UniProtKB/TrEMBL annotation:
Listed name of the protein: Conserved oligomeric Golgi complex subunit 7
Superkingdom of this protein's organism: Eukaryota
Coiled-coil residues: none
Bilayer topology term: Peripheral membrane protein
Family per similarity comment: Belongs to the COG7 family.
GO cellular component, one term: Golgi transport complex
GO biological process: Golgi organization; intracellular protein transport; retrograde vesicle-mediated transport, Golgi to endoplasmic reticulum
Region (Disordered): 242-261
Alphabetically ordered keywords of this record: Golgi apparatus, Membrane, Protein transport, Transport
Native species: Medicago truncatula
Key word Membrane present: yes
InterPro entries reported in the protein's UniProt record: COG7
Length: 828
């Protein structure tokens, strides 16, 4: 048996467990005693071997101790010697440092003196050279050597900067400015010729002359001036063609007038059809200039060609705006006939009845999209330019549309107002008896159909805002949509008021807000049951109108919030903040360099916001607020929607309770309550065993009402929504039943005196109504139960009833009131 010594060194070694394991591993034919004796012997022999090995290794270690001690002493002595040597070296270095510092300070003073002497020498040389240059510069100009003249002027400028503000050289400074202007003027003719005829070498030499005297702006100006002429000719081609077409039409009109024939005008040139070709030719011209300038002006082509485009757009800007304005007017025959544009419509300088239409704005967006395509091509062409240069160019491209974008909110209001005014939302009118239900149904149908139409119009407005402004006018869009929704809901509310009149539940004219039951209530005897229920069913349909308005406006508002969230992502740069570094653009709340990876980052909305920090701050404040789940994109409209829903619920309640109100209107004044029992020879009941007609009418109405509410539930989809609709219908059922009970109790409290016969009859009436309420699963109010208990009890036993234990379940004020009605004195 092999013994594993590792097990004995474990901290959790268990001797008993080890012995048991060793016993289990013995051979089956070997006895246990012999196995244990062998195991003990092996362990003893192993222990003796370990002891002998330990003694041998300890003796060897003791022999090595003296040698190690001598080595340690020797190392300590060597360390002390090294420390002494290092100290001496440090002492010597400190001495050398002190003497070197004094020497270096002295040398520094000498060097300063030397530099001053050299500067003075150079200044004297510059002064002498300046005087010599001033005297010979005229000869240089006379020679016509422009590069030499530029070099001379540059040297004079250098000498003047060296001598500083010295009074003796003031006249030379003025002479230098005059000479620089003179040289600039001399360069312009050959520069114009070189640019016009594409003479690369000459253009480069002349550029060097202007750069040498610091007149790069002159090169930019002359470059733009030379190339503006052919570009403006492209633009003027449209105006010349328009003028030719107009002249041809006038000539044709005069000829037809003289011959008496029919005049047919020749078709005019459409600006929207012509503009893409102009942009194509302009882009081709710029591409050619870009390639030529890369060779002729490799250092400056990234600024020269973009500035040419900016100057071009500034030159044709006023004409561009005028053509846009007229092109928008041509989109609609009414304004085209008057030769008027968008600005004329917005300013009110139009004939009465001419309004801004969707086609006008769509035409403007079409032109803007054409320009947007050109802007993207320009951004691709000038992608290697500095971002600020590129921004200036793109802003100039979009500049003709800026005045229209600034009035976007006004345009959207005018368009939406006109479109909503075209929706049939006329109020209901009172018709003859029998046709009021039809009028009610038709009016509700118009209201319900108008809601999706209006939402579609609002959604289209949001899309127009994205297409035209890229979201930079989102704040104006929100204000316009909120305002239009307010006007629309106000129209719905006015229509709702007309429905009250048709339904006969309008308010009295005394301004108190109370219903005039005698004058304004619908007369039951004048209309049939079918008409009655058709009006009830129509009134219930108004709930669908309110539900549709609430749900669709909520969905649209959620869509607006999503649009605002998309704006906060797409508007990646803005002029947000009071100060803007010229080499940076703000991203959100942090500065960062723009990049052109993926989607073009410098879109039209970004370009506008960079220049208008206040508008950017206002817009981004709105976008940040829109991230809050409690944010209402249309705050005023949301409140008005809730108010409209309340008005609808009030109208529906008044219509549904109207039948009950009419049936119970005179209950407190019925003569039967004060009637006396008639004398008869036969034993007859003192009251009718059947409830009276007023309460049976109410009961039958309440029991039939669930059937009228079923279509309302069926009109909603199945599933959870159907369960919600069933709950909604049940809620209205309970609301009407509760209202009927309240009205009935009010009438009972108005009874001044009731005889025993009247009390018995009223008890039967109350019992019938209670059974109806129970059938509708309505709880019976304690007040009504008290009336029934006190009225069904004989007058003589009424006082005892109030003294019994059952009186605890009665409403005491009501019980006292019944006692007063029945002339029962409780004090006696």
């Amino acid at each position: 048996m092999m013994v594993d010594l590792v097990q004995f060194s474990n901290s959790n070694f268990d001797p008993k467990k080890w012995i048991n394991t060793a016993c289990h591993s013995r051979h089956s034919q070997q006895s246990l005693d012999k196995h244990l004796i062998d195991l003990e012997m092996k362990l003893q022999m192993l222990s003796e071997e370990i002891s002998a090995s330990l003694e041998e290794q300890s003796s060897a270690a003791l022999l090595h101790v003296p040698r190690a001690t001598r080595d340690v002493v020797r190392l300590r002595d060597d360390a002390g010697s090294l420390r002494s040597a290092v100290s001496v070296i440090l002492h010597n270095l400190q001495k050398a440092e002190g003497s070197s510092a004094e020497s270096i300070a002295a040398l520094a003073k000498v060097d300063v003196v030397k530099q001053r002497m050299e500067a003075a020498y150079e200044t004297l040389q510059d002064a002498a050279g300046l005087t010599q240059l001033s005297s010979t510069v005229e000869d240089v100009f006379t020679s016509g050597d422009l590069p030499r003249a530029a070099e001379t002027l540059a040297n004079m400028r250098h000498c003047l900067s060296a001598v500083g503000e010295v009074a003796e050289f003031a006249n030379i400074r003025k002479q230098l400015e005059v000479l620089e202007d003179r040289l600039d003027t001399m360069v312009q003719p050959p520069l114009t010729d070189a640019l016009s005829n594409r003479k690369i070498d000459a253009a480069q030499d002349l550029r060097g002359v202007l750069i040498r005297i610091g007149r790069f702006k002159s090169l930019e100006s002359q470059y733009s001036k030379v190339h503006l002429k052919p570009i403006k000719k492209l633009w003027e081609d449209l105006e010349s063609r328009e003028h030719a077409s107009k002249s041809a039409n006038e000539k044709s009109e005069m000829e037809t007038m003289s011959t008496g024939g029919d005049f047919q005008s020749s078709p005019t040139i459409s600006f929207s059809n012509w503009l893409p070709s102009f942009y194509d030719e302009l882009l081709l011209y710029l591409e050619q200039e870009w390639k030529w300038c890369m060779v002729a002006f490799p250092e400056d082509y990234k600024t020269l060609v973009p500035k040419l485009l900016s100057d071009t757009m500034m030159a044709i800007g006023a004409s561009f705006i005028s053509h846009i304005n007229l092109a928008i007017g041509d989109a609609v025959p009414e304004t085209k006939a008057l030769a008027k544009g968008l600005s004329d419509i917005l300013s009110g300088d139009m004939q009465k009845g001419i309004k801004l239409q969707t086609k006008h704005l769509e035409s403007l967006i079409e032109l803007h999209n054409i320009t947007g395509t050109f802007a993207r091509n320009i951004q691709h062409l000038f992608s290697g330019c500095d971002v600020l240069v590129l921004m200036d160019v793109l802003k100039s491209v979009y500049l003709p549309y800026e005045s229209f974008k600034q009035r976007y909110g006004q345009m959207e209001r005018a368009i939406l107002s006109s479109e909503i005014a075209g929706i049939d939302l006329r109020g209901a009118v009172i018709r003859r008896v029998g046709a009021q239900g039809v009028e009610l149904s038709e009016t509700i149908r118009r209201m319900e159909e108008s809601i999706p139409q209006v939402i579609i119009l609002l959604e289209a407005a949001a899309e127009r805002c994205i297409s035209f402004t890229g979201g930079s006018e989102a704040d104006e869009l929100i204000l316009a949509l909120d305002d239009i929704m307010l006007k629309y809901i106000s129209t719905l509310q006015e229509t709702l008021k007309s429905l009250r009149t048709v339904c006969g539940v309008d308010y009295g004219g005394d301004g108190t807000g109370k219903k005039d039951e005698n004058q304004n209530a619908r007369k039951v005897d004048l209309i049939s049951n079918e008409e009655e229920w058709s009006m009830v069913q129509g009134a219930l349909q108004i709930l669908t109108v309110a539900d549709s308005l609430t749900s669709r406006s909520s969905v649209f508002e959620a869509s607006l919030r999503a649009t605002l969230a998309r704006f906060s992502t797409t508007l990646s740069f803005s002029a947000f903040g009071s100060s803007l570094d010229q080499n940076q653009i703000i991203h959100g709340n942090e500065y960062e360099e723009p990049s052109f990876g993926g989607r073009a980052s410098l879109d039209m909305a970004t370009l506008r916001l960079v220049n208008v920090p206040e508008k950017a701050r206002k817009l981004f404040s709105l976008l940040n607020q829109s991230k809050d789940p409690r944010f209402h994109a249309l705050p005023l409209a949301s409140q008005r929607v809730a108010a409209f829903e309340d008005m609808v619920n009030e109208l529906v309640y008044d219509v549904l309770i109207s039948k009950v109100r009419q049936c119970l209107s005179d209950v407190s004044r019925l003569p039967i309550w004060s009637s006396v029992e008639e004398q008869s020879a036969f034993h007859l009941p003192a009251f009718s065993a059947y409830p009276q007609s007023y309460v049976t009418s109410v009961g039958e109405y309440l029991l039939t009402l669930p059937q009228q509410l079923e279509p309302l539930a069926e009109g909603i989809s199945t599933g959870e929504a159907n369960d919600e609709a069933q709950f909604f219908a049940t809620e209205w059922m309970f609301k009407i039943a509760e209202g009927a009970t309240t009205l009935y109790i009010e009438q009972l409290r108005g009874i001044q005196y009731i005889t025993d016969r009247g009390a018995q009859q009223l008890s039967v009436d109350i019992d019938y109504l209670s059974n109806v309420l129970s059938a509708l699963s309505m709880p019976i109010p304690a007040v009504l139960t008290t009336f029934h208990s006190c009225l069904s009890t004989s007058r003589d036993q009424l006082k005892d009833l109030l003294k019994t234990d059952s009186a605890n379940h009665l409403d005491l004020p009501t019980a006292n009131l019944v006692c007063k009605m029945r002339r029962v004195n409780l004090d006696s």
